[in-house]
């Protein structure tokens, strides 16, 4: 299981692109995960996925720093979501080491199709802060988001950032910019939950993880600054593009690869 220099260089380029996209609308794992699995066929799948959590964490961290400078966060809400999401992601990664995640893809295919249709048809979706929720309803939505998406990120992963943004927009009434900022913190918690599990099991390949982490972080910092500068309409457009790309990816996995 030797790692060629040109393979590592290609992985680093991919990590930069993934960090850039993920900082704006999530979905960086859709670029990073399939590519790494193709480039590293001789490595165990669990080890590849475990190693990718390190660059994902670093890219999200740099993006979060940029958002914190410009965007006000709901710290009470985000603390609850991040805490629950950490443990949900840990549980999802534990399950990943036991069973296949293939059965989830048809379900996600339907969900993503509905997301794409809704986002495209609602031209003002996510362009303004929309909802004033009671504390009780806000807490219930926060628990729902953190448990479901946290578990998904630990178990399957790709697209989790986009799902978080969608949840913040549709359930909590945030605009896309604030949704992206809050999603970065939750992504940190879910990545940390997975990393904790994979560290305990010794699955991370550090020779791959560290160089990719540096490149993903650079992409994340640039992407976050661009999102802040361009605003909600730009994020909405890229979000829709990534959702459709995710949809096509799952269609390929289900109908072509199967």
TrEMBL record:
The chain crosses the membrane at residues 33-52, 73-91, 103-120, 140-157, 204-228, 234-252. It holds the Pfam family TauE. It is a multi-pass membrane protein. InterPro entries: TM_pro_TauE-like (IPR002781), TSUP (IPR052017). The keyword Transit peptide does not apply. The keyword DNA repair does not apply. GO terms for cellular component: plasma membrane. It is found in: Cell membrane. Keywords: Cell membrane, Membrane, Transmembrane, Transmembrane helix, Transport. Belongs to the 4-toluene sulfonate uptake permease (TSUP) (TC 2.A.102) family. This is Probable membrane transporter protein.
């Amino acid at each position: 299981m030797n790692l060629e220099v040109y393979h590592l260089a290609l992985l680093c380029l991919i990590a930069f692109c993934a960090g850039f996209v993920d900082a704006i609308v999530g979905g960086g794992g859709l670029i990073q995960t399939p590519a790494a699995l193709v480039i590293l066929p001789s490595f165990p799948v669990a080890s590849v996925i475990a190693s990718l959590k390190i660059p994902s964490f670093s890219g999200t961290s740099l993006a979060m720093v940029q958002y914190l400078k410009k965007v006000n966060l709901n710290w009470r809400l985000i603390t609850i979501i991040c805490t629950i999401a950490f443990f949900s992601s840990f549980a999802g990664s534990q399950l990943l080491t036991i069973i296949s995640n293939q059965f989830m893809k048809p379900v996600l295919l339907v969900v993503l199709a509905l997301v794409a249709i809704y986002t495209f048809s609602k031209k003002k979706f996510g362009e303004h802060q929309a909802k004033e929720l009671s504390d009780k309803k806000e807490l219930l939505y926060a628990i729902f988001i953190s448990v479901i998406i946290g578990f998904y990120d630990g178990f399957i992963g790709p697209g989790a950032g986009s799902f978080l943004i969608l949840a913040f927009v549709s359930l909590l009434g945030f605009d896309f910019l604030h949704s992206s900022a809050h999603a970065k913190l939750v992504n940190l918690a879910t990545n940390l939950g997975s990393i904790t599990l994979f560290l305990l099991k010794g699955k991370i390949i550090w020779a791959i993880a560290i160089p990719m982490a540096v490149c993903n972080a650079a992409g994340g910092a640039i992407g976050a600054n661009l999102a802040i500068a361009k605003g909600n309409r730009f994020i909405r457009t890229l979000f829709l593009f990534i959702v459709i790309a995710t949809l096509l990816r799952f269609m390929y996995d289900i109908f072509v690869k199967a």
